[in-house]
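Hi there,

I know you've been waiting on this one. I reran it after we fixed the sequence typo, so this is the corrected version. Both the input and the resulting structure follow.
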Amino acid sequence: MKNITVKEILDQTGGRLLQGSMDHFMRGACIDSREVTAKNGFFPMKGARADGHDYLADVLKRGCRLLVISDEEKVPGEDVLGEMGLKKDDVSVILVPDTLRALQQLAKYYIAALPLKKKIAVTGSVGKTSTRDMLYYVASTRYKTGRNQKNYNNEFGLPLTILSFDEDLEVAVLEMGMDSRGEIDVLADMVRPDIAVITTIGISHIENLGSREGIRQAKMEVTGYFTPESVLVVNQSCDLLQKDMVAGNYRVVTVGNDGKSDFIVSNVCDFGDKGIKYTLDRNHKQYEVSLPVPGAHNAMNSALAIAVGELLDISPEEAAAGLQQAELTAKRLNVRGKNGIKVIDDTYNAAPESMRSAINTLLATKGIRKVAILSDMKELGPESENFHRQVGAYAGAQHIDFLVTVGDHARYIGLGAAPYLGEEHVKHYDSREELIGDLEQLIRPGDVVLVKGSRSMEMEKVVKKIFEEKEQE
């Protein structure tokens, strides 16, 4: 990480130095008082349940000496500083109108100052994190590459990621998430990407955006700061990402399975937890691509990564080799086995498209029984019941062996599946806690168990309990 001085912070944020020295600097930023380090700058955020300004003394105890604040009254006084053996000049305090905005302004300044060859943005309703991870491995075959920390893809996490980048970074791969219109615009303004990828337009957040077209428009904000030299890479297999629908004063590269795209995906073979294999056509030449990660949908995600790789002067052969090293972020089709039970942990999030893909992976994974434990999909608006029923009907039509549903909305998944599976093969729980109490009776050695639901449902606790119980036997 590169040092950012107090003067640079003042210049970029328009803040005012309340106390301390212009000689102070920060390396990286933090918004969590429990994670701050001595060299970080601390940016307290005001939330609905907590105000980071209430923890300024705790931050100082952890060695931090640079605070960017918006509430002057919360700054620890000389008496508090004295108890820590500090003087006012030992701590630099910068007052700004809005700490989040200041963090974003600083990140915009920092990434523009890095000697990056390319800045790549990745967004989409489904698959953006997996595509980001694959892109990271492709780019890393030739360049020093950085990507989002954890799932830091929003207005808070993205600037924290940017401010953690090393000063000799060559390529930045940055996932951009959103819930509402205008959010990606803020992130794109911060990054000013050279290349952007849109994986698909689904129905996640349709409750906030009204329609899939509304979602498409929100995702297209990623191109808002493009120049004629910029490139948009899209999954043309998606009906709302056809080339003529996303065209602008920039280049468009398409990936698809209809034979008309610049990169054509075909012959996808799904080996369940063993990974996938497919054929990629580019300029009348065919490449066989193998991936060590599960999920047939990852053929398209990886093909998007290969397409971007070409823009980085990385050949499809080199990109395919890089993909052999790919490891996806935790809780995304992560397959683990113990005591005769294999668990497909896909608990990070859920939408109808990703639910169906995960069910396909379940079916392709070897095991005696195929068991799906599915919970609510959030933010689907007035059609939520119908979307849940459709997922249930899909699971039933694929003839999984046993379906467990958890939550108010997930009840309709079970109702959609029951006509296919029979009510004796479907069981519903109102809460995760009730399910956990029965887990030992529901699953047994030889089972392959898919666990999936929206992030707020915390279904990773179910995965943890499965392994805890088996370890106790």
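Quick highlight: Residues 236 and 242 are 5 Å apart (CA to CA).

Best,
R. S.
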